[in-house]
Amino acid sequence: MSRYWSSLVHRLTPYVPGEQPKLARLVKLNTNENPYPPSPRVVEAISEELRNGGELLRLYPDPAADRLKEAVAARFADFAITAQQVFVGNGSDEVLAHVFMALLKHELPILFPDITYSFYPVYCGLHDVAYATVPLDEDFAIRIDDYVAPNGGIIFPNPNAPTGCLLPLPAIASLLARHRQSVVVVDEAYVDFGGESAMALVSEHPNLLVVRTLSKAHSLAGLRVGYAVGQCALIEALDRVKNSFNSYPLDRLAIAGAVAAISDQAYLEATRQAVMRSREALCSDLRGLGFEVLPSAANFVFVRHRLHDAGELAAALRQRGVIVRHFKLPRIDQHLRITIGTDVQGELLVEALREILA
Ligand code: PMP
User: Fold this and answer.
1) Which atom of ligand 1 is nearest to the CA of 214?
2) Cβ(93) to ligand 1 under 6 A?
3) Using one digit for the tens of pLDDT, what is the confidence trace for 273-296?
4) ipTM for the complex?
């Protein structure tokens, strides 16, 4: 590669997703996937879409994905959300990319926590978007008083990642009221595992956008579906960006599967309860092994051992076939983020840790 091209490539700092190992038989607790399969209705709906030798695949999907928007609106009917208030995309990462392009103003810095989902700084770095990080407090909580106006917008996950800490709804309402000139984006990737959704605040706050994914609570990371909910002006802005470069973000199978998943509330309830039960059991086992465990409202826990280096622990676990996430970043390089798996996976993790710590 010529010096010109290689310097161009090296200027770009990529987002590094969690490892997707090729080996079977690993206990994979590194990317916050759900350990349970999706609702059986998802497979039925996708099979139905493939009927008659897949003849429907000849045809473009609905560019507006109206069925999916209606399913999302029906799920949040209690908050009077309508289909016109929903934007959909190919995973919430793609939805977030649209949000950065359409709604976060680039003349002023966008604000987000210093410890958060790495997509945000990476996106800003790649696209030369100004941002400023706001330190979490000593308990890893988001301190809303430190978010100053004016700014180009505010974005954070709730619960936060990789900490699992929750910002209570009244704090979000207060942030929205203090920053009426900014869009406040609440990334609710993990909210179904014990969080409080900001969906209840959408009707009162024109500056709020709530972003969700089907990758976690609905066990559909492989289908790539995410969505955003907000008042119509924000959704129209997102649609304009979408229409300018891909009118068909979701394929037919993704739309059919996502509608089925969102409509099966009973299944969602059963799996999220199972994950939350396993989380409580794992937290108590980890505390028993000498780990400090941050209270988590997500499908992962963020832990640290007082006597053992986190990088070495991650490597020793890997040798025993258990993969967890270690971030080599300031302030959290002694922590591990561990996804909640099945109880059996949790037991294998604890057994491996017992052996390592002995
Ligand atoms: N937001 C947060 C906070 C996440 O951790 C993730 C998953 N890594 C995403 C969004 C993106 O999820 P997806 O693109 O699978 O919808």
Assistant:
1) 16
2) yes
3) 999 999 999 999 999 999 999 999
4) 0.99
